[in-house]
Design a protein that fits this description.
Blueprint (H helix, E strand, L loop, with lengths): L15 H16 L12 E3 L20 H18 L4 E7 L5 H13 L6 E8 L2 H17 L7 E9 L7 H8 L2 H15 L5 E4 L21 H13 L18
Parallel strand pairs: 1-2, 2-3, 3-4, 4-5
Helix pairs in contact: 1-2, 2-3, 4-6, 6-7
């Protein structure tokens, strides 16, 4: 039998201001102990996820309102949360790519108009070459410069992994994430992005049993190739200052 599943979390709330106050209390719960909560001192809070995502059929799995409605929700929530928690970093909106000029224009012209701060500009990128991650980072920096947000606004790529394509090559991409090529991609991506405008880089993802988890085998939890790439990078970081290293071979990375 067909089961109609409604994703309640992708529809615009009826009252944007009320939704912003709910977000306020979520932060209070996790950071300030409100409602039998916690004191995790979480600094970064991102508003929404991929509002610009569109399936081939035109549907949007992450936002069912209009683009203008999302910008309204984002700015209302941003203003409210910054007034409540000026010490925290509030940003977003986790776009599918930094190269969405239409959405960038909608977002940043509104931020300019309302004189709102943006602590971080976040976006995602799935690619078959590490150089593509650097390209979206550099594009994101140009966006911040274009709208006067290049001082004080961090640039965060908080979803990335190897993807050959989202259509015929998608099953192949999932296999690569867990094999040696996937580990090499992760290592090369971190090396390339080290010298990009990015402030933060978040691999997606580490959740047990999920398709994009290239870190642990879903049957045994044994570490996979991408895990050792991250582990080795952590070891390098403990050594301190980066030393310049170059190679003439575009397919070889040195750090």
């Amino acid at each position: 039998n067909y089961i109609d599943i409604k994703a309640y979390r992708i529809y615009p709330p009826k009252d944007f201001a009320k939704w912003a106050r709910i977000c306020e209390h979520i932060i209070m719960h996790y950071n300030e102990g409100w409602a039998d909560g916690f004191h995790y001192d979480i600094e970064y809070w991102e508003i929404w996820n991929e509002p610009d995502c569109h399936n081939p059929d035109g549907s949007n799995p992450c936002w069912q309102g209009t683009d203008e409605q999302f910008i309204d929700l984002f700015t209302i929530t941003l203003r409210h949360l910054k007034s409540c928690f000026p010490q925290l970093k509030i940003g977003g909106p986790a776009l599918c790519t930094s190269r969405n000029d239409y959405y960038n224009e909608l977002l940043f012209t509104r931020l300019q108009k309302e004189k709102l701060p943006l602590d971080f500009f976040s976006f995602h990128c799935y690619a078959k070459e590490p150089a593509e991650l650097v390209e979206v980072a550099e594009y994101g920096k140009k966006v911040l410069q274009r709208y006067g947000y290049d001082t004080g606004t961090e640039l965060i790529l908080n979803e990335w992994n190897y993807v050959q394509s989202w259509t015929d090559e998608y099953p192949h991409s999932i296999r690569v994430m867990a094999n040696p090529k996937g580990g090499a991609f992760v290592c090369a991506a971190m090396q390339d992005c080290q010298n990009s405008p990015l402030d933060m880089l978040m691999y997606y993802d580490w959740r047990p049993g999920t398709a994009f988890n290239g870190l642990f085998d879903f049957r045994t939890d044994a570490p996979l190739w991408a895990y050792w790439a991250l582990y080795s990078w952590g070891k390098l970081k403990t050594l301190g200052t980066q030393v310049k290293a170059e190679t003439a071979d575009a397919d070889i990375r040195v750090t």
